[in-house]
Amino acid sequence: MSTPRFPGGTAVSGLRVYDWEAADGLHGGTPHMHTASTEAYVVAAGRGQVHTVTGEGAQVTDLSAGTVLWFGPGTVHRLVNHGGLELTVVMQNAGLPEAGDAVFTFPRAVLADREAYDDAARLAPDASEEELGRQARARRDLAMEGYLELVASVAEHGPESLREFHRHAAELVRPRVDAWRRIWRENVERETELTRDQLAALERGEPGAMHDAALVRTEPHPGPRRFGMCGRLRTWQPRTTGPERP
Fold first, then answer.
1. pLDDT (tens digit, 9 = 90+) per residue, 192-226?
2. What pTM was computed for the model?
3. Share of the chain above pLDDT 70, in %
4. Which of 38, 99, 175, 231 is the most core-located residue (most Cβ within 10 A)?
5. pLDDT in tens, 125-155
């Protein structure tokens, strides 16, 4: 896969990968995939692996500080923490992953029942930190159960087993697509239009958007890191400031 050219609407977050032990004795996050968005990892610290499943089968890629890798929609991935693994995550189509673009590798019976899937994927928004951690770990463990089944099935039956998972995922997210399209138009498409307008202005010899030049400083959202799919997430809220002086 060639390095993609992200459109507007890219999101960035900081990730400390879970060190919880899983059923196979490894420590790490929740296996899942994205149905519409490309994702990139920039490893900031620590050591680990990303385990992926594609049409070519299961693969293990080592991670250490400075590693950069990309994967597109449909790539099942699982982060494994060998010690202090921290990443900067770059996500295409900001807003869509938060709206359900990610599908967990739950067992087939859960994937086939949308209500059961939603119950298993949901974290209670008003729960305590301790309870959220318990729920996130239970979600990870259930996804691991389905993930190990999927890896074994792909090894035995080939790509059709992954295509079956993709079909389940597409059916699960189908009711959300109209809402996703609105998010995409307000975010990604809008940014693309701004670039188109800027190119048109430059073609006329006009500064265009350069008149709106500003420095944007990002501040972390207050409170503890939230429980994500692969670990504890730090996200930022942008604010516009005047030019900074050295």
1. 898 899 999 999 999 998 998 877 777 888 888 98
2. 0.89
3. 93
4. 231
5. 899 999 999 999 999 999 999 999 999 999 9
CATH code of 152's domain: 2.60.120.10
CA distance 105 to 175: 19
pLDDT tier for residue 10 given thresholds of 50, 70 and 90: confident
Flag whether 244 is in a domain: no
Q: How distant, in Å, are the alpha carbons of 17, 28, 63 from that of 164?
A: 28, 25, 29
Q: How many structural domains does the chain have?
A: 1
> Is position 211 within any domain?
no
Which of 29, 26, 22 is closest to 228 using CA atoms? 29
Rounded to a whole number, what is the distance in angstroms from the first to the last CA of the chain? 40
User: Cα-Cα-Cα-Cα dihedral of 207, 209, 212, 213, to 10°?
Assistant: -80
Domain annotation covers residue 205: no
Which tokens belong to 10? Answer: 């890219």
Question: Beta-strand (E) ranges in 92-147?
Answer: 102-104
6 inside domain:
no
Question: In a 3-state reduction of DSSP, which class is residue 224?
Answer: coil
Range of the domain at 134: 11-191+217-227
d(CA 29, CA 140): 7
Q: Any bridge partners for residue 216, and if so which? A: 240
